[in-house]
Automatic annotation (TrEMBL):
Protein name: Methionine--tRNA ligase
Motif 'KMSKS' region mapped to chain: 323-327
Keywords: Aminoacyl-tRNA synthetase, ATP-binding, Cytoplasm, Ligase, Metal-binding, Nucleotide-binding, Protein biosynthesis, RNA-binding, tRNA-binding, Zinc
Task of the protein: Is required not only for elongation of protein synthesis but also for the initiation of all mRNA translation through initiator tRNA(fMet) aminoacylation.
Annotated EC: 6.1.1.10
Superkingdom, natural source: Archaea
Entry binding sites for Zn(2+): C140, C143, C152, C156
Compartment(s): Cytoplasm
Subunit annotation: Homodimer.
Record PROSITE patterns: TRBD
Length: 662
């Protein structure tokens, strides 16, 4: 048995093309597994908790539950429209999910893996409340950039624990926050270091996920604060004033949704999650690898549950060659842009799985999309299928399937084996390439055999040619069905094939006779005018003419005049020393040409004092001074974030301190 899950979509906004990088390949994988005869349970659900939902609900004058209702229904509608078929699609604000989460947290408490700790948290004296996550804004202790309470979203991108942020302010009223002590609860992740090192050796999945996980496990693990000051969420057992952190309760949804799916399917969920009798496969985005390969298996181990077998992480998504960004307009909304245009879900499913390898970055371009549909799906696959079916229907109606061409059967066998291998390796592009190559072979076979001439001279020979071509069509209906369920459903209907009761090996179980009904073209060509309209809509959004979200995008863009205000120079580090009481901060004395500046940088975990001395760096010199751990910083040293590690920028060739960066 297999359990396949998808990372839970956050019920705080509409579905976009980035979401589909996870859900469509997972659905394709499940369909292929079932064609192979596997017993598969497929679950997902809405992630209903967390500070962003509370903040968004407040801004819209809704309760958090009402906001979740809107987006939960939206995602269910989108998945149905795209033929992504879960056995159960739940939501984490359901009673059954709260019960399962509290049971697991209680078990972790009883087993000594959760402990209380008094910490200092940002507190707003005006609002009279502690400020969780995105209710607070301040300075990142690692890089000195402006950051929100749970993440340095404008700087190094690091996760921030409660109480770590410096110079906190309340995002609701703007008041400077103070730090007050409060008891919270921590998950003892450090206790699982040896377990995780062994676990990752046996974990299967895409190399991008496994490589990230190995890198994190080899670093120093830290215990996680797993409680928050919110009204909305799963109440923490033993302290009802706190709720469980969303990254504890969200993955537990995989378990609670499995329970509900098994009720529906007549299975025992404990065989999967307690007895370990199933292969558990997680499909996720690359940005949540840490949670699924480190935090989640440690929780499961501590609570006595079965462990994941594989983690399949997709590459990132770009739009028209640019980094995916909702605020900047580089986004394709599934409902408003795609489905509202009347485009077939099969086209998008094919593009998502066939554009590139699953773990590489996918670029969505409307022109490339049109070309892949018109030049591949229609010109190769659709053209072959329709020509064969129409010829068979018009000239025979009933085709005797004997004396099939041996080379045709061999090509069908090769395509089937390629697909089996590709799916086992999560290479969905290779699987879709395999059935497209078979269609290409079919086109050559049909064209070379010239049945339209044979039928006039030797109808029996023409029937033998059409029988072999029909064997390819029948194989394609099965092999391409997981990617193109609607189009292949039409094809199967034309030849009396029941796709609900076939297996991959059914391509060789060819009936003695096939009755061909009047066929319908499996695909419709995409008009250039439609693509131009869709691209125009995107350009308007990017340029700030497409609505409120794009006004924000316009505001985020900077002109050359604003860039010119930045005083960026090359500096030379004269002295470097660690700041007492901080593992991350380093006090630097940097010669920037006109003077020597004291700068505090969050690089102590990545660089030693000795290797920093006399090093050339790039400095933002006219940033406002800030105090970090009581030490004033008069500048910012620029660095690239590489998997959470700061990598200092430096000039290619030696230059004098003070040289301007333009």
């Amino acid at each position: 048995m297999k359990l396949v899950t998808c990372g839970l979509p956050y019920a705080n906004g509409k579905a976009h093309i980035g979401h589909l990088r996870t859900y469509i390949p997972a659905d394709v994988y499940v369909r292929y597994q079932r064609l192979k005869g596997e017993d598969v349970v497929f679950v997902c659900g809405s992630d209903s908790h967390g500070t962003p939902i509370v903040v968004n609900a407040e801004q819209q004058g809704l309760s958090p539950g009402e906001l979740v209702d809107v987006y939960h229904e939206h995602f269910q509608k989108i998945f149905k429209a795209l033929d992504v078929e879960f056995d159960y699609y739940g939501r984490t604000d359901s009673d059954y999910h709260h019960e399962r989460t509290r049971e697991i947290v209680r078990t972790l408490l009883d087993n000594g893996y959760i402990y209380p700790k008094e910490i200092e948290l940002a507190y707003c004296p005006k609002c009279d409340r502690f400020l969780p996550d995105r209710y607070v804004e301040g300075i990142c202790p690692y890089c000195g950039a402006v950051a929100r309470g749970d993440e340095c979203d404008q700087g190094c991108g690091r996760h921030l624990e409660p109480g770590e942020i410096l110079q906190p302010k309340c995002k609701i009223c703007g008041t400077s926050a103070v730090f007050k002590k409060q008891k919270h609860y921590y998950f003892r992740l450090t206790a699982f270091s040896d377990f995780l090192k062994d676990f990752i050796v046996n974990l299967k999945g895409t190399e991008n996920a496994l490589n990230y996980a190995r890198e994190w496990i080899n670093k120093e693990l830290k215990d996680w604060c797993i409680t928050r000051n919110l009204e909305w969420g799963v109440r923490f057992p033993g302290d009802e004033n706190l709720v469980v952190y969303v990254w504890v309760d969200a993955p537990i949804g995989y378990i609670s949704f499995t329970e509900k799916a098994c009720e529906k399917l007549g299975k025992d969920w404990k065989e999967i999650w307690i007895d370990g009798k199933a292969e558990i496969v997680h499909f996720i985005g690359l940005d949540i690898v840490y949670h699924h390969c480190i935090f989640w298996p440690a929780m499961l181990k501590g609570a006595g549950y079965a462990l994941p077998s594989a983690v399949i992480a997709s590459g990132m998504v770009k739009v028209e060659g640019k980094k995916f960004s909702k605020s900047r307009g580089y986004v394709v909304w599934v409902e408003e842009d795609y489905l509202a245009s009347g485009l077939s879900p099969d086209y998008l499913r094919y593009y998502i799985v066939n554009y590139t390898s699953h773990q590489k970055d996918l670029n969505f371009s409307w022109h490339v999309f049109r070309d892949k549909v018109n030049n591949e799906l229609i010109a190769t696959l659709g053209n072959f299928i329709y020509r064969v079916l129409h010829f068979a229907w018009k000239n025979f109606g009933e085709v005797r399937m004997n004396e099939l061409d041996g080379d045709v059967l061999e090509q069908i066998r090769l395509a089937t084996e390629k697909i089996k291998k590709a799916i086992d390796e999560w290479e969905f592009k290779e699987a879709s390439d395999a059935f497209m190559e078979l269609a290409g072979f079919g086109n050559v076979y049909f064209q070379t055999s010239k049945p339209w001439e044979l039928v006039k001279e030797d109808k029996d020979e023409a029937e033998r040619v059409i029988a072999s071509a029909l064997a390819i069509v029948r194989a394609l209906a099965v092999l391409a069905y997981p990617v193109l369920p609607r189009a292949m459903g039409k094809v199967a209907e034309s030849i009396g094939l029941d796709l609900d009761n076939v297996r991959l090996d059914s391509v060789f179980e060819i009936p003695e006779v096939i009755n061909v009904k009047k066929p319908r073209a499996p695909f419709t060509k995409i008009d250039d005018g439609m693509i131009e309209e869709l691209e125009k809509r995107m350009l308007e959004r990017i340029s700030g003419k497409g609505g409120e979200g794009n006004k924000e995008a316009d505001e985020e863009r900077v002109g050359i005049e604003e860039f010119a205000k930045l005083d960026i120079r090359v500096g030379r580090i004269l002295k470097a020393e660690r700041i007492k009481g901080s593992k991350k901060l380093m006090r630097l004395e940097v010669d920037i040409g006109s003077e020597v500046r004291q700068i505090v940088a969050g690089i102590a975990e990545n660089y030693s004092e000795d290797e920093l001395k006399d090093r050339l760096v790039v400095v933002l010199a006219n940033i406002k001074p800030a105090k970090l751990m009581g030490v004033e910083s008069n500048g910012m040293v620029l660095a690239a974030d590489v998997n959470g590690k700061a990598v200092l920028l430096e000039p290619e060739k030696p230059v004098e301190p003070g040289a301007k960066v333009k």
